[in-house]
Amino acid sequence: MKKPSLNPEIYYRIFEDFPGYLAILDEKGNILATNAFWQKEAMRKGLLVRPDCVGYNYINLCEKAEGEEREFAEKVKNGILLVIKKKIPFFSLTYKLTDDNSKALKKYLFLFFPLKGKPRVFVLLHQELPKGEVFLPLLETFEEEKRPSSPPSGWLSFLSAVLYPFLNLLQDKLEPELEKMRLEILNKIKEFEKETLSSLNPLAVLTTKEAQIALLVKEGKTSEEIAKLLNLGKDAVDFYRKKIREKLGLKGSEISLKDYLQDLFKFSSQD
């Protein structure tokens, strides 16, 4: 089996530490490089000769899939071919499979998209998703999910610690259409993160200083009292109070900041 000539070092800087399956494919579907997670899982499953799978053709592997994976593999193969032939800019799919070890049904995300430049190469991502249902308007395949009253914290970790930094590292490596989509997804993640943090902690949207002042306002302290406690000028405290009102959506409102904060914490403690 001949190893392709593409040197994958520049791509390894992006993918090596990703906590899911990642591979670089050429226009024929040949695997040019895989990350450490891919190789570790391949060895765990008994693939000892070439755990990096370099030289294997992923499209051929999809055609050989059997059992529960067959339907998923057929969809993946067709999606990959559409991207390679430039019929669609990228392919994404969420699906459920039974885990080999735990025998539990788990949800996964599959992504396939091209990188900018020549030779033309493609990224294949296969990532387990957190438990729980959540609405994420960043990929079409998520639109069927229902928004829960309290977003699962596992999703926050996945988006903030996995997907967000991965998308950041793809900056300047995508064609214009995908780059625009990348920026939109990053903004969606920021919105989701802000919403989720707000539901977990009422002061999560505030800076440390703003949170300190908000807590003192909640306790009924005046600006003068807060200024003395925090060694600040009264004007500085008033400025912070104004910023707090803006971040909590109270700008232009006659609602008392103290009453609002007290109600906010009362509501939060009941969740």
UniProtKB/TrEMBL annotation:
Where do the HTH luxR-type domain residues begin and end? Answer: 199-265
One GO biological process this protein is involved in is: regulation of DNA-templated transcription
**Which ranges of the sequence are coiled-coil?**
none
- Pfam families for the chain: GerE
Which positions carry the signal peptide feature in this UniProt record?
Answer: none
Q: Name a GO molecular-function annotation.
A: DNA binding
For this protein, the record's CDD domains field holds: LuxR_C_like
What protein name does the entry list? HTH luxR-type domain-containing protein
